[in-house]
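Subject: mismatched residue count in predicted assembly?

I count 396 residues in my input, but I want to confirm that the predicted structure covers every chain. Input:
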Amino acid sequence: MISKEEFRNAVIQAIKRVKDIDHVDIANDEDFSHVGLDSLDAMDLVLQVESITGLNFGEFNAAEARNIDAFYVKAEELFGDGT
Amino acid sequence: MIGVKAIGRYVAPEQVSNLERAQRAGKDQSFIRDKIGFQSLARLPAGIETSDMCVSAFADLKRISKIREEDVDCLIVCTQNPDAAGLPHTSAIVHRKLGLKHDVACFDISLGCSGYVYGLSIIYSFMRTNGMRCGLLFTADPYSRIIDPEDWDTELLFGDAATVTWMGESPIYRCRPAMFATDGSLGHSISVSQRGEKLSMLGSNVFKFSMTVVPDQVDRYLQRESLSHDDIDVFLFHQGSRFIVENLVKKMGLPPAKAPFEAADVGNTVSSSLPLMLQSRLQSRPARVLISGFGVGLSWATMILDARLPEKK
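Triage response: the counts match. Full output below for your records.
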């Protein structure tokens, strides 16, 4: 399973892609809306994280990934063994 | 050779402003304008049937072209919201309302946002096989009938419109062979579970599907046709939302002007979104127009309409 730190780095990189920005400052428990992501951007964020990590979240409702912590919990649920 | 000669349209006359009801929907106006993209939606008045929309689109076609009812020998309606319960088929009802002769083949096809590409391929093949010279392909899907007005995930998206494409000889555009695909395992992503129920849509599924399969199909299709992005003058993508169209453009590295979003005042009109955009190109006639429809099914299909394609014997 990808480590929390690696996952966090992937999410930060994904946010930069989605928002087309160079710098992102966000805590793990901070809602993605604080860096300007809306409900549609959240869908793109999941796709970008998939592209960066190689993980496939399948039919995942992006609204469930409100922050890095919640997103990682979902990743652990799906890929907790053998990734 | 048979191809696209002209397109008539009917856009429902009532307008619902999404900007005015943004607050009620819990959205910012900027989100509606810049992300969803549909500032207002065309809505069908009560009492107007799908066949009536088709008849109105045909009236527009008559106004702008030399189509004659007596020449029609094939009529196809693409809809998933037929008159009544779909029995008789809506194409037969349109046949009656247009007062066409008996020697006309009429049938419906049930497809959503990929329907126009399928429809063009079907009518082209059907007419060629059976030696027909004058065909009408209608698209008409009044989704407002199946939307739950309290479901803002769908209520802000869909508009009502119909088109009719006149297929015949000496066309403006010829149809290259299309490419089709389906993933029935994701069919529940856009569905009406039972007759009389309302539409449900899983937005994350639809977005992911759109961003993955469409660029892949377009690239494979262009490769098959020995063409590149630069050989296409305009890419017309199904207008699912501004967000989807603009992200496709970004993902595929296309110049935004070559793949426009043009449904801000109409909404997502399902199988009518592509012919509505194509109609406005029939005057300027860009040489190669790639059309790509994707949605309900999940289904996706791509075709190039080519003004330069040499005639096949």
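Residues 34 and 82 of chain A are 33 Å apart (CA to CA). Marking this ticket as 'not a bug'.
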